[in-house]
Amino acid sequence: MRNVERHVLCAENRPLFEELPRRLYGSLYRGEPAPDGLAFFVTRDPAGRVSARAAIWTNPELVHLGSVPGLVGSFESEDDGDAAQAVLAAAESEIRVSGATRIIGPMNGSTWASYRVAMEE
Hints:
It is built from 2 helices and 5 strands. It has 121 residues and is an alpha+beta fold. It has a 5-stranded mixed β-sheet, with helices on both faces. The model has no long low-confidence stretch (mean pLDDT 85).
């Protein structure tokens, strides 16, 4: 499994957090920018470029069966299953340590951003 780096989002490392979506999509997607303070995980390719990322989002207003679930969002990965698995496993591990019994993702804090999908029941 890949070496995973853990960071906390702040002005200093925002370029690291935004590197992969900028490279994959040419820009950041629409919506609210990720807030400072998010724990996030990255893996790097042999050239040192970010190859996958995932962040832990929190929303204390989201309650499921009496507990607040952990949220994994800001997930992106190049075509690299090992890198994707590594960042998701790191996010899951940290969420479980925090006491969450359920993990929901991908969700960047809520379902109201541009990635929202509404489906009929």
